[in-house]
From TrEMBL:
Catalytic activity: Fe-coproporphyrin III + 2 H(+) = coproporphyrin III + Fe(2+)
One Pfam family cited in the UniProt record for this chain: Ferrochelatase
Residues the record lists as binding Fe-coproporphyrin III: 13, 30, 46-47, 126
Lineage of the species this protein comes from: Bacteria, Bacillati, Bacillota, Bacilli, Bacillales
MF term (GO), any: ferrochelatase activity
InterPro entries cross-referenced by the UniProt entry: Ferrochelatase, Ferrochelatase_C
Descriptive protein name: Coproporphyrin III ferrochelatase
Role: Involved in coproporphyrin-dependent heme b biosynthesis. Catalyzes the insertion of ferrous iron into coproporphyrin III to form Fe-coproporphyrin III.
Metabolic or biological pathway: Porphyrin-containing compound metabolism; protoheme biosynthesis
Length: 316
């Protein structure tokens, strides 16, 4: 008897693959409006600053998709899970991933986003695009919406915080641990969006496991728009704790990001580090999850569980 084939649509934000793709990528983010020369120069300069323009996110995402498929095969050999990539702002787009599944004869699928925390403006947007395309093509698909308190995810993050704290000399309690995530427009608060609460829940869970008392949460990488975004920004927080509380050791733990990309390699490793130097602060950060086996097992668990739930709810 042949195995049942289940498609897995692995969704993420996307990134250009080379410098000459930055303008098209930025235009897509801006909903078809090309960036100004100044805006394009600023974004391109950021990519160039990361190892001479090497684009790590794309390669990291490719490896995550491959590793997830291998983990699903290992943990659930009775089912043939086939992973497809769907990106929000670069090819293959979310719709391309759905289309490819249908072309390959996939009839049933699970969608998961490489982001543990749900917001209607982030994960919700991915899900809507995938569902709309699936409905158009007659594909049966269900979605993992969040996994921010999965035990294996917390295990992986806890290990990273403990390892990073070891980079500081002296009393660990002197280190201000700052959990961070990508800011979103502040209007999500009016919508009772769960994003801030889920991020705080993850932060609290990690702090409780380790016994941290000197920690807080901060936002980063806000968009440059006329509308306000969630704050305070970590750069502002760093200045405040340095100048008013005389903190000289800070550990950034970007729990809202699952791989090394622009918001980690530039916003933290270059921009925040430059500020830390000005302020006389020792700044360290936790390693990104990337293809950590515990993270891959987290994704494997939630995908399999969602598929099982769908089977129970809709027995064939």
């Amino acid at each position: 008897m042949s195995k049942q084939r289940i498609g897995v649509l692995v969704m993420s934000y996307g990134t250009p693959e080379s410098l000459d793709q930055v303008e098209a990528y930025y235009t897509h983010i801006r909903r078809g409006h090309p960036p100004t020369a100044e805006q394009l120069h600023e974004l391109t300069s950021r990519y160039e600053a990361i190892v001479g323009g090497f684009f790590p996110l794309r390669e990291n995402t490719n490896k995550q998709v491959q590793s997830l498929e291998a983990t699903l095969h290992r943990e659930h050999p009775e089912v043939e899970f086939v992973c497809y990539q769907g990106l929000k702002h670069a090819q293959p787009y979310i719709e391309d991933g759905v289309d490819q599944m249908v072309k390959d004869g996939i009839q049933e699928a699970v969608g998961v986003v490489l982001a543990p925390h749900y917001s209607v403006m982030s994960v919700g947007g991915y899900v809507k695009r995938a569902q709309d395309k699936a409905d158009e093509l007659g594909l049966k698909i269900s979605f993992v919406l969040e996994y921010h308190l999965h035990e294996k995810l917390l295990d992986a993050l806890q290990t990273r915080v403990v390892n990073a704290l070891a980079k500081f000399d002296g009393n660990r309690d002197e280190v201000r641990v700052m959990f961070t995530a990508h800011s979103l427009p502040a209007k999500i608060l009016e919508m009772k969006d769960p994003y801030p609460d889920q991020l705080l829940a993850t932060s609290t869970a990690i702090a409780d496991r380790i016994g941290l008392t000197n920690w807080q949460f901060g936002w980063q990488s806000a968009g440059q728009t006329a509308t306000p975004w969630l704050g305070p920004d970590i750069l502002d927080v760093m200045q405040t704790v340095a100048n008013e509380e005389h903190v000289r050791k800070i550990l950034l733990c970007p729990i809202g990001f699952v791989s090394d990309h622009l918001e980690v390699l530039y916003d933290i490793d270059i921009e925040a580090q430059a500020l830390a130097k000005e302020l006389g602060i020792q700044l360290e950060r936790t390693e990104s999850l990337n293809t950590d086996p515990l993270y891959m097992e987290t994704l494997s668990d939630v995908v399999y569980k969602k598929w099982q739930e769908t089977k129970v709810a809709n027995p064939s």
